[in-house]
Design a protein that fits this description.
Elements (H helix, E strand, L loop, with lengths): L1 H17 L17 H17 L13 H25 L27 H16 L3 H29 L1 H9 L5
Helix pairs in contact: 1-3, 3-4, 4-5, 5-6
Length: 180
Amino acid sequence: MIVLLICMVIFRVLSLKQQGIEAIEFGKKDPKDYFIPPFAVFYLYLILANAFDLPTIIHQNLFENQTMAWIGVLFCLMSLSLFLWALISFKKSFRVGLAENSSQGLITQGAFAVSRNPIYVSFAAMLIGQFLIFPSWILLIYIFAGILTFHRQVLKEENFLAIQYGDEFEQYCGKVNRYL
C-alpha cells in the first residue's frame, strides 16, 4: 500500500511537470526537511522486510491478532482513498514542500472541505494501519515520530498559508478542522 501511495505522488508530480508546473519544492524553504528521507527509506524497508520476510531488526511482535491486522488493512485502504481524494482536490496546486502558489487560490473544496490537512491525516492512518498489520515496537515508534513530524510540517504550512492568504485562510480555519 505504501508503494501505491508513492506511485500516486510520482504520477502526480510527473503529470504536473508535463503541464509545466514544478511540483517538487521539498527542502527549498527549510533544509531540515532533508532529515526526513533517510527515516522514510528505513521505514519503507521495514515494511517490505516484514511483508516479504527479509532481514530486519529482530521481529518482536507486540501482539498477534488477525482481526487487528484486517483493521490495519482497512486503515491503509482508507488512507489511500483519502490520499487520492486529496490529490484530486488539489488540482494543479499540489506541491511537495512549501511554494507560493496563489494562481489557483486557497484550496477548500473536496477533501479540504473535511480536513485542512487530509494528506497528513492519510499518512498517519497509513502508519497506524501498517502497525496493526506488522505490530512491532519499531513501527510503534514510527507512529509517534511520524505524527510529531507531520504536526511540525502542518504548523509550518499553516503559518505559510496564513501569510499568503490572510483573512481567507483564517476564515477557512474557522470552518474546517486542522485534522478531522
